[in-house]
Design goal:
By secondary structure, this protein is an alpha/beta fold. The chain folds into two domains: 3-179, Alpha-Beta Complex (Spore Coat Polysaccharide Biosynthesis Protein SpsA, Chain A), CATH 3.90.550; 212-409, Rossmann fold (3-Layer(aba) Sandwich), CATH 3.40.50.150. Helices cover 30% and strands 22% of the residues. The strands form four sheets. It has an eight-stranded mixed beta sheet. The protein is elongated and about 75 Å long.
């Protein structure tokens, strides 16, 4: 991944710009920023700055970097700026060719979710201000340029609100950039980052799978999966034995890909690049209803493919468009996820069609194991009582069961799942 730096400036701030470029030069960035100088004639300084920012975005798109750093001209920098960015979990997990938007400068923006272990928080888009240091993907920059006139405001407001239409907004914690000027370019309120650390260095990389990144991608997708249930699915993937590098997850009932994305991102974050998700669904739009019936909605295959592609997990997913019990299967399964039709007979048939292939100490997860779907609940209770499985963990309507170890694999177990 290579990130190119672009800087927004104007002729009147030459001295400040020279100092900022010098500050960047003493970091590990390794190359000068490309400077976009204001050449407009608007009487209002705000309009001049906003139009120059638009031209900077166009310039970056024309140059073609996958990611670029949008900088203002009155800044100081963390000494290990590039090192830290290249090891930053949200950027490392960004889908190739997909949307991404982040800030390395926090003037006290409101957090919606946070992951201190991976040095970031997810920002409330409506609280974002200050365009001192944005990290933008090419796809998001193209969206900003196309929709620029759809939102009123200066560049920080336009960029953040428009970016929020297509992606979450991540903030590095601590801030890697500091505002050093004594006044704004147009006379607005001056602000600084209270958490700037000039010498902070990330030498560990991502500490673990990141729930916020996965949950924010999952929430974009149509379907039924609670945050707590998604976290338990992530924990279950994380608990699969490391020895099974080419582990297999079989998902019965994919709908639009909500749980598929959770599985795929969990695999990608945990480095299981050889793992595969076999996503089995008829994609005819038929779904179970609480009253025990089946409702007809629109076919879902196109939505499924789009969501998988947008999340950047297509290499992990093998879509299987078929009735689950008609799928021919002959390979080991590390995790079987049963989320098709929710009546007792379908759940039983779906489970037994694949259960022979679940590894000793492998997992079977059942969604909608709750009173409103008594068939699922009844089958899970029966399975948990027969001695072959134990309930490893539950969350809301999700029940995860672990298979007993085989005679030749006594003591071989996956990591315990937190209940």
């Amino acid at each position: 991944m290579h990130i190119t730096a672009y800087m927004l400036s104007c002729p009147a701030r030459e001295g400040m710009r020279i100092q900022t470029l010098a500050n960047l030069a003493v970091t590990d960035w390794g190359e000068p920023a490309i400077v976009e100088i204001d050449q407009t004639t608007h009487p209002r300084l705000q309009d001049r700055q906003t139009e120059t920012a638009f031209r900077l975005l166009q310039h970056a798109l024309a140059d073609g970097p996958d990611f670029f750093l949008f900088l203002e001209d009155d800044l100081d920098f963390n000494r290990a700026l590039r090192h830290n960015l290249e090891r930053w979990c949200p950027l490392m997990q960004a889908a190739p060719g997909g949307h991404f938007f982040a800030s390395l400068y926090n003037p006290n923006v409101r957090a919606l979710d946070q992951d201190d272990g991976n040095a970031f928080f997810v920002a409330d888009p409506n609280s974002v201000y200050g365009s001192q240091a944005f990290v933008v993907s090419a796809a998001t920059a193209r969206h900003l340029v196309d929709k620029w006139e759809d939102h009123i405001g200066m560049q920080d407001i336009k960029m953040s609100r428009l970016a929020a239409q297509v992606t979450s907004i991540y903030y590095h914690r601590p801030s890697l950039v500091q505002h050093t000027g004594v006044e704004s370019a147009w006379g607005g309120r001056y602000h600084q980052a209270v958490d700037f650390q000039k010498d902070w260095r990330n030498d560990g990389g991502p500490t673990r799978v990141s729930y916020p990144i996965i949950l924010n991608e999952m929430r974009k997708i149509e379907g039924w999966l609670d945050d707590a249930e998604a976290k338990l699915l992530v924990d279950t993937v994380d608990a699969l034995p490391a020895a099974h590098g080419e582990c297999s997850i079989v998902e019965i009932g994919s709908y639009c890909g909500k749980s598929t994305v959770v599985f795929g991102l969990a695999l990608r974050q945990s480095g299981r690049c050889a793992a595969r998700i076999y996503a089995i669904d008829r994609h005819d739009g038929k779904i179970s209803t609480i009253d025990g019936g089946i409702a007809a909605t629109a076919p879902t295959l196109d939505k499924f493919h789009r969501n998988i592609r947008n999340a950047g997990i297509a290499p992990f997913v093998e879509p299987v468009v078929a009735e689950p019990t008609e799928v021919s299967w002959n390979r080991a399964i590390d995790l079987l996820f049963v989320d098709g039709f929710h009546d007792y007979d379908h759940v039983k048939q779906d489970y037994h069609h694949f259960s022979t292939w679940v590894r000793p100490s492998g997992y079977v997860a059942f969604h909608d194991c709750a009173p409103h779907f008594p068939g699922v609940k009844r089958f899970v209770e029966e399975l948990a009582c027969n001695g072959e499985y134990r309930i490893a963990a539950t969350a809301k309507s999700l029940a995860v069961l672990q298979k007993a170890c085989g005679p030749s694999e006594k003591g071989v177990k996956g990591r315990e799942i937190s209940p």
